[in-house]
């Protein structure tokens, strides 16, 4: 599932959403956005840095969707396989394809998620790409956040909220056979 530069460059692989892994846990969404803007400004339109609610830190990976192939190539050339300056981590950034592909699919996934009820630093971000800003006739919108669509399925949103209260995103492995009491525990990671 690793992103191959040659296939992206020649157009034989047209997937747009990647998972950036080995992110230092202390990097917040603003730091990630600053890094993306340094190399890929105006070329991405969505990102989500997952957060561990117990520690308030990220869990080491983020999802990013690119509106242009140039942005993905810039990420490959300038971020992948490099260590994180300013952090103690010696891990190098890795890029692989995400399971969910495309801006619309990502927005749809999170549209009815309880994660949008959490603090702002935990939420997915939809960003105006340069292409979208030009289409709207205002290039100043490039790189600014735009709101995610409001929930369109209140029953699904309620299930997401209830599920997060009971288990979180990652249920404890022993909870499978422990019954009702185990469901009352909070998961270790985010519940989005």
From TrEMBL:
Cited Gene3D superfamilies: 3.30.70.330
GO MF assignments: nucleic acid binding
InterPro entries the UniProt entry points to: Mei2-like_Rrm_C (IPR007201), Nucleotide-bd_a/b_plait_sf (IPR012677), RBD_domain_sf (IPR035979)
Source species, domain of life: Eukaryota
Disordered: region residues: 133-153
Domain Mei2-like C-terminal RNA recognition motif: 15-111
UniProt xrefs under SUPFAM superfamilies: RNA-binding domain, RBD
Listed Pfam families: RRM_2
Name by which UniProt lists this protein: Mei2-like C-terminal RNA recognition motif domain-containing protein
Organism: Lophiostoma macrostomum CBS 122681
């Amino acid at each position: 599932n690793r992103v191959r530069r040659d296939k992206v460059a020649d157009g034989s692989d047209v997937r747009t959403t990647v998972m950036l892994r080995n992110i230092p846990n202390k990097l917040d969404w603003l730091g990630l956005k600053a890094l993306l803007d340094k190399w890929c400004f105006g070329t991405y339109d969505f990102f989500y840095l997952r957060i561990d609610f117990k520690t308030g830190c990220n869990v080491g990976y983020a999802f990013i969707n690119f509106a242009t192939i140039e942005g993905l190539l810039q990420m490959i050339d300038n971020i992948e396989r490099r260590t994180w300056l300013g952090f103690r981590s010696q891990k190098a950034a890795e890029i692989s394809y995400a399971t969910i592909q495309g801006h619309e699919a990502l927005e749809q996934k999170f549209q009815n998620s309880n994660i949008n009820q959490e603090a702002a630093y935990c939420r997915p971000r939809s960003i105006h790409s340069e292409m979208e800003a030009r289409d709207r006739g205002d290039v100043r919108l490039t790189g600014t956040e735009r709101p995610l669509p409001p929930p369109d399925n209140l029953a699904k949103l309620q299930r997401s909220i209830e599920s997060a209260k009971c288990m979180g995103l990652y249920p404890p492995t022993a909870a499978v056979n422990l019954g009702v009491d185990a469901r009352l525990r909070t998961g270790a990671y985010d519940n989005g």
